[in-house]
Each structure stands twice: as C-alpha cells, then as structure tokens.
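Report of the visiting student (M.T.), summer placement. My assignment was to run the structure pipeline on a short list of targets and document each run. The first record concerns Anaphase-promoting complex subunit 4 WD40 domain-containing protein.
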Amino acid sequence: GGELFVLNAANGALLKTFPRHSNQISCLVYCKEDMCVLSASWDKSLRVYDDMATNNPLLRSISDAHESDIKCLAYSHSLSLVATGSNDGHIKIWDFVYFLLEQQHHTTSEVNCLVFVEPFPVLVSGHENGDVHVYTVRPAAIPQLLFTTKVWAYDGECLGVLCGDKEGPFWHLAVDTDSVSERKLHFAQALWGRLKDHLQLTALQTPTTTPTTLSHR
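After the run finished, the structure tokens were exported:
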C-alpha cells in the first residue's frame, strides 16, 4: 500500500505516479485552485504534491502528524487550512502553505469525517460514537469548540457531513446509508439553527482577498 497513481479519467491510462507513503493512503483531496494533491496515510504522515511538476512533485510533508492513524482530511482554499482527524480522537488544523500546526483538539471518540463550512471559519467533525463537534478556526477572534451535539442515529462506517446551499450550509447530515430523509433534514436544520445562535455568521465570512497559495516550481 501507499502508492499514489494519476490516471486519465476518460480511458484509465496511467499518467504519472507520486512518491509513495510507507503505509496505506487513508484519504486524498484534490486542491483545484492550487493544482495540488493532499494525502494522508496510516503511516501518520500528511503530504502535498504539486500536480503540475514534471519531477520532484512533493512540496510539503509532515511525518508523525498524528500519534495514531490519520482517518480523515479536509481542506479550505479560502481559509488556507487543512484539518486532519485520527482514530485516537485527535483533530489537528494546519496552515496549508507552511504546514504549521494552528490548532488541535482532543475528543473521546474516533474521528470519522471533517468538513469546513464555507464561507465561514467553521469546522465540523463527525465521530464514531455519533458526536458532532463544531469549532471556529482562523480568522475567528478566538478559535474554539462552539458546541457538541449527538446524532440521533448513526452508523460508524458511514457518518458524514456534507455542505450545500439548499437549507444553509448544513442542508444534509448523512448518518446512514439511506437516502436523505425528512428527519435527517430536520436534524441538519436544527444544527444550523444552533450554530447561528452561537455566532454572528455574517461577521465571520471569510475575506474576499485572494489567499496565499503554494508556489509551484
């Protein structure tokens, strides 16, 4: 495990490979604005590759980013942040350009999924025990845990948080393999309402200025 291949989506032809991780890759994110690929692995490392490089594509790497296996990964171009979660319950938030640790939080349950709630400086995490944690991140004045709620039903293998614009950022909180149900939508709306109670979200929207991006060789 650990190989990373780039294939032609139309015909499946192999285009190139990236330097491999030493263990199975657990998550990948394509950063289209920067034309980079973020990867995390069960070798506990976090990497970013330059998709445009003809040689030496590895731009940044953190070995031992977590003490346990990294299970999930989220990226925000507008915030220039990367979030990682591990199976020991740790959440870490990194500066995308320099891979410096910005925040970390310890929770009591395995982190199954992470998502940034664009355009707000908010990160949501979903956990094996059904917990959902909501955090503020930079440029919020005081990055912190806002609140924790419990999903009314969950499947540890499928818990996911998705964003959309139909009913506000939390229009669908997927907690099992069924299609979107009215009860799930009500839960998402309640979560969105609770978040609005904690924040003046219009004042927290991310700046319209172009964020700092990675330099390509």
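The chain has a mean pLDDT of 75. The first helix runs from residue 182 to 198. I thank the supervising group for their guidance throughout the placement.
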